[in-house]
Every structure is written in structure tokens, then in C-alpha cells.
Amino acid sequence: MLIMDLRRLEVFCKVVENRSFSRAAEEVYLSQPTVSEHIRLLELFLEEKLVDRLGKTVLPTQAGEILYKYAKEILALKEEAISAVKSYKGEVSGKLKVGCSTIPGTFIIPYFIGSFIKKYLGARVNLFTGDSRDIVNKVASGKLELGVVGAIFRNNKVTFEEILNDELVLVVYPGHKLLRKKRVTISDLKKYPYVNREYGSGTREFVEKYLRENGLELSDLNIVLEVGSTEAVCHAIKAKVGVSIVSRRAVEDDVGCGCLEIVPFHNLRMLRHFYLVENEGRSKSTVYEAFVNELREWSSSEEEHVYKV
């Protein structure tokens, strides 16, 4: 008897998301032939071809795209049902998909998640990183349940709440001319090659806004390189490609070992916020509520990391 069970839908979604039977098989802990059989049985049940096999790439057909949309909603509802029942029993457990921009996702939130899952043993967190704009869009579309980002982007489906603080600093390689200058101003950035973050980065958005508030435009800088991560920025500075403004958190280790140097601006500190992004139209599971409440409490002690530097 042909049926459309939840496991089969889960396998189908993984095939669509990975565009590959083999990668989907790895994620669902099944053999590739078993994954193929799940898809075949779904196609038989629906009497529709769901995926096209183009060499090693698998793409959904129009029918497959329709099924994928509803399958994701069904699977999400399953998780909500499990969470609701466990909530009734007083348990905090379940899965949570969290998205973060580069700095919080690399240097802050993993530490919080470590303490969170120790307290709530039944909780499981999937952490995704990307640029701030991408994370906001995925929270708005429901692909992620919540996010932590470094910039606000207009989107009427989400709300933004100040949750963490950060300081941006001017970073150079050892021996740079700016280290010998007694008073460094924001205008001095125009004189040196600059390494910039990509469009959509929260750091880039903040720097651009800060420059404008101080009479400069991003186009006034001698931008010689644009890269897609803070790590790439730091490597470029070490290679003496240019200087850049980055999060102090991201360079603490490199500064500590003498690989990079921080140049303070005269009478100027660049402080910014990270924001909790939530989709108000989404139902909140017990693990979601616990995560957000714990993050708010934990973040208050994190402020000292920035303001006592």
C-alpha cells in the first residue's frame, strides 16, 4: 500500500535542498538506493514526477516545488506538535534553527549555545551563518526561526530587538605607517588601501553609515578588495593588501599574538548593536521561548566584554 509518511517527506526535502541523492542520504543516515526508493514511492503515490536527474544534479519539477513547500510546512508542524506536548508535560526540548551574521555566529552565539544546551538537555540547535541581509530574509520566509544580525534591513515580516553590543576597530598589519601617527582620524582612511566586506554585510552597512555621519562616503575610500567574511578580511590585512574596520572580537587572538595591530581613532569609538530578529507571525515553541529568554539574560553580562575594553 502506497502512503505519504513523514519520513518520506523529510527525505524528499533533503534531496531538493541538497540537489543530490548522495548528499541527502548522508544527512538522513540512509543509503543512496533507499533515498531513491523513497522518491520513487512518492512519485507513484502522487502519480507525478517530482525531480529531474540532470547528471549528478537533482532539481525539483513544478510538481516537486509545490510538494516541497507543503512538505516543509507539514514537517514544521510536526515539530511544533511534539514541542507543544512536551511543553504540556513541562519539558523544554526540540529543534531550533538559528541564523547569525558572521561575527555573532562565529565569536558570540556558539558560547551561549554551549551553556544553553547544558541547561536544557533535550534542546537541539542548528546554527547557520551568512550575511545579515540573508539571515533577515530567511527569518522572514520561515526558513530560520530566529536570527542575530549586525544591521537592520526593512522587512515588514520581522522585528528587531537590540540584544548584544560590539565595537569596531581599525586594524592594520605590524609596521604600518598609521601606527606611527599620533592622532588618527576617520579621514585618514582615504590615504590607504582598504579591504571591504561584501554587500549585505552588517559590518559594511554600519561602516558606510558611520562614514556618512562623519562627512565621508564609502566611495571616498581606496577600496582595493571586497571579500565575503571577516576571516578573509583579516587574512588580507596580514598579507598587507590594505587596512580595514572589523569587530574587536574577531581580531583579539591575532592582536594577542602580534599578527595584527589595532589603531585607535582620536576621540572616537565605533560601538554598534547586534539585533535579535524574530518573525512575529510564527508560533513559538517552548525551546524557542527558552532560547530567547536565556539569550536576553546572558547578553546583559556580555555587555561588559565591549564596554570594559
Oligomer: single chain
Give the helix/strand class. Answer: alpha/beta
* Global Rg: 23 Å
Question: Looking at the structure, what is the overall shape?
Answer: elongated
End-to-end span in angstroms? 66 Å
Largest sheet entry: 7 strands, mixed
Share in β-strands: 15-25%
How many individual domains?
A: 3
Main CATH class of the largest domain: Alpha Beta
How much helical structure, as a percent, in the residues? 40-55%
Whole-number average pLDDT?
90
- Count of helical stretches: 10
Number of strands: 11
Within CATH, the superfamily of the largest domain carries the name Periplasmic binding protein-like II
Structure write-up:
By secondary structure, the protein is α/β, with parallel strands linked by helices. The chain folds into 3 domains: 6-83, Winged helix-like DNA-binding domain superfamily/Winged helix DNA-binding domain (Arc Repressor Mutant, subunit A), CATH 1.10.10; 94-164 and 274-307, D-Maltodextrin-Binding Protein, domain 2; 166-272, Periplasmic binding protein-like II (D-Maltodextrin-Binding Protein, domain 2), CATH 3.40.190.10. It is built from 10 helices and 11 strands. Strands 3, 4, 5, 6, 9, 10 and 11 form a 7-stranded mixed beta sheet that branches. β3 (93-100), α5 and β4 (122-129) form a beta-alpha-beta unit. The N and C termini lie far apart (66 Å).
